[in-house]
Amino acid sequence: MTDISAIFKILRFMNDIQDKNNARYLKYRTKFFISEFFGTALLLLVGLSIVIFMFGSGSPMATLIPNVKVRQIITGFLFGSVGASIALSNIGKVSGAHINPAVTMVFWLFRKIEGRLAITYILAQLTGAIIGCLPLLIWGQMGHSIFYGGTSPGANYTNQTALLGEIVTTFIMVSLLVIFIGFRSIRKFTPYMFPVLYAIMVPLEADISGISTNPARSLGPAVISGHWNAWWIYWAGPLAGAFLASLACSLLAKRITIAKLYHFDSESEGDILLRRSELQKPE
Fold first, then answer.
1. Which residue positions in the chain have pLDDT lower than 50?
2. Domain range holding 85?
3. Most buried among 67, 172, 241, 265, using CB within 10 Å?
4. What are the two backbone dihedrals, phi and then psi, of residue 242, each rounded to the nearest 5 degrees?
5. For the chain, what is the total number of helices (H) and then of strands (E)?
């Protein structure tokens, strides 16, 4: 009887541990979801407001800065600055500020984030993109005139050319991201790379594909505008480009210590347990 009683005590103890582990897993997964949700929503709300103000019909910017390429350079720099600011903020400290399914996919391929959490991140990014775009309706006709900053192939370019453009630009973005966070001497400058990079890429690519490099960035305005022209390009292109970049930069994977774009030395209990899969997941 004593042996049986001891066995039951051990089983109860193991169940208690499992329950605590499950609770902690859900707690941290919820925290990361909220962080990526608000980060992506903020990126699209502010970033696409900049796009609308720069290029929407009736905007004074066409008169103030008549050169389209100059406006594209400014827009790329400002959009990249929004993303950089999110990475530097507390949002970036909590979840790493991926705010892009393609970036999350690469961290997962590099085994810096566990599978279920990667799915959580992507769901948060997609829902955040849609909700973050709803306030863009306030721009009215100015926003509607350019589909609230939506992306579609340029009038003089084929879908195949636009797809290639998305693959190349995403490949460049992800490769530079991996290189920056892979080397300790430069990784603290990672967020600051984005404004410069997009200031260069936007004037080169915007007329071809609209330049997305982020499925969530294209999904949000497509939902609120109903404009789904060649929508598949903005999934296939960024994901293919990111995948190719992960292959090209695979030797740097071991140098990446955490799935973040900044705050590399702020690893929390949730980071340790979830990113490294050391916490047993709920059944």
1. 8-9, 11, 13-20, 277-283
2. 20-275
3. 241
4. -65, -40
5. 12, 0
Say if 13 falls within a structural domain.
no
How far is Cα 56 from Cα 92, in angstroms, rounded to an integer? 30
Contact 105, 118 (CB under 8 A): yes
Structural tokens at position 204: 């080169």
- How many domains does the structure of the chain reveal? 1
In a domain, 104, yes or no: yes
Q: What residues have CB less than 8 Å from 239, skipping those under 6 apart?
A: 101, 102, 105, 215
What single letter denotes the amino acid at residue 261?
A: L
Question: CB neighbours of 98 closer than 8 A, spacing ≥ 6?
Answer: 36, 39, 104, 107, 121, 125, 259, 261
What end-to-end distance do the CA atoms of the chain give, in Å? Answer: 31
In three-state secondary structure terms, 252 is helix
> 141 is written with which tokens?
């006709």
Q: Is 171 contained in some domain?
A: yes
Integer Cα distance of 74 and 11 in angstroms? 63
Alpha carbon distances (Å) from 198 to 27, 154, 192, 248: 35, 18, 11, 21
Q: Name residue 106's amino acid.
A: V
